[in-house]
Write a structure and sequence with these properties.
This protein is mostly helical. It has one domain. It contains four helices and no strands. The longest helix is centred in the middle third of the chain and has 11 residues. The protein is elongated, with a radius of gyration of 13 Å.
């Protein structure tokens, strides 16, 4: 929401994937989400992880 306007709709993961729009309105991503997005850019993970345990489990499988 920005000035009573809905800027984005969707579930948590869908909203977090729009990182540029969030930064534009002054919202920073949680560290694990930001790390997941960076790892996804390098094709090291295939989805966004919201918690450290899940990400570590995936990376060390």
């Amino acid at each position: 929401m920005d000035n009573d306007k809905v800027l984005m709709k969707g579930n948590t993961i869908e909203v977090f994937q729009n990182e540029q729009a969030l930064k534009r309105i002054g919202i920073t991503l949680p560290f694990m989400v930001e790390l997941s997005l960076l790892l996804k850019d390098y094709n090291l993970v295939d989805k966004i992880y919201l918690d450290k345990e899940s990400l570590v489990q995936y990376l060390w499988k």
